[in-house]
């Protein structure tokens, strides 16, 4: 029978050596293959079940012979997500509290979260389906920043500006619901949240990070099977050039990752912050439904390209009004005020002591009074390289700043107490910049102050809340907006207060708190609310730290190594307290001894840090360090493609 088949996607896979034979000009002898070797002739593109940051699953064909970094870039191109270097693939963590289930049970649990469709399915005519934007269009380079890019999304609500066909080309996405990746979908029942794995301790969080795939090896080399479920996540917490006009899907998926991190208690927050996050979620859910309905009626919007370009220029230009830029550029701003200072020591009962404090460059000087500020300070501290942690309670009018200042023998702990929000915002912004080696003359200082003030404002509760119409309280499900820990906390509070509970009383109490907090965000647009949620997530003390269990050279017990975008942190495994911090800006080089699996990092002033990762391949830690160094080299004026080779040089180690 004359049946034609396209074999162009097939290649040879050598199972024993776990390698693809892709160099077709090589002989089998050159590969070292003997007569008894077993080779598999298999398609390179295979189906993968991908869990997106919004916890929904999609089926997509991925090249199993490409390095993971390249495979993720292709996936992001499919979903119109710029800057794919920020994402990677993670193996699903096992919940140690649950007994092993049958595969059918696991699959049925996953299918409950499957996107309608399924969203992406392989084509019937060919082995390889190009799923993604039209080739050659502006959408086919999601990793680039171009000054001439045409806006793709409405910056107000995130809906596509162009017709569906231009947005996703001829892909399967355009046949179904193209907006589904850019639209937040609310959690429908508390049972979904209850089934999710919640890390109970820092060690549990560290174990999740064992699952990151090696970016310099292919999926097949890492024992990933066809139809296996993998997690697509933002791996590096350094989000470059988030622009609502191009990044509606990226912003939404980032918002979803932040939302689930808070609900699953992967990151700590205060009760006031939790209510603010819940209010933002409620607002986003409400606006998402309205936007979807409006988009169905107005799918073909016309865009004036000149107006869009001018508007985009206004948004993206750094700085602000001319008057703020052309100030006195010869002097560095300073802060001077009465601040309460506390230096905790063992067996001490002394509290805060008030000083006249001046903040110059990256140093704080403390004087006993304003009159003595021309003399020698009683205390002086340089904040370069320190850890800055907020300790704020709006209702209790507590505005504290915790500083961990590096010294030769470890970290000195200092607490600053401010009198009000305005004072706190200015001093907190100055401390954050000083920790990075920047002064208040930096252009980001005023923006940082405004971000802190807006973050505090969103946590305010109206002391005399307006009467809320009964009809809008019915669409709030607090069990889906607040983490289980705070639900339990409210329940315990009420049980102590009164023995007999009215039906739904606790639910109504939390709903009222959420609606009070909602009044602070009710005027925000959909995209603004998502951006504020992401910014508030970034403001949390634990944000952006990836933990690994490690044993340090000279140490006797297991500790944690925390990796952030700009520093390494040695941490206590039980409390999470920082023992010592090292900035990447002071790093000279880092090496890995692959035989004993030891990572050694050398810093300025002949400081050396060596540790062995006990429960994860040191390659994962090495890739995180190199990845953050790679991301720090990005600039907005770069208009060329992603430098893959540079990424591999910094992260792969032996390639």
Automatic annotation (TrEMBL):
Q: Name one GO cellular component term.
A: focal adhesion
- Keywords on record: Cell adhesion
Gene3D superfamilies hit by this protein: Phosphatidylinositol 3-kinase Catalytic Subunit, Chain A, domain 1, Pleckstrin-homology domain (PH domain)/Phosphotyrosine-binding domain (PTB)
Q: What InterPro entries does UniProt report for this protein, alphabetically? A: Band_41_domain, FERM_2, FERM_central, Kindlin/fermitin, Kindlin_2_N, PH-like_dom_sf, PH_domain, PH_Kindlin/fermitin
Q: Name one GO biological process term.
A: cell-matrix adhesion
Span-the-membrane segments of this chain are none
Q: Which GO terms describe its molecular function?
A: integrin binding
UniProt-listed PROSITE patterns: PH_DOMAIN (PS50003)
Has the keyword Amino-acid biosynthesis been applied to this entry?
no
- Region (Disordered), start-end ranges: 91-111
- One Pfam family, please name it: FERM_M
PH domain: residues covered: 340-436
Family of the protein in this entry = Belongs to the kindlin family.
Q: What is this protein called?
A: PH domain-containing protein
- Lineage, highest ranks first: Eukaryota, Metazoa, Chordata, Craniata, Vertebrata
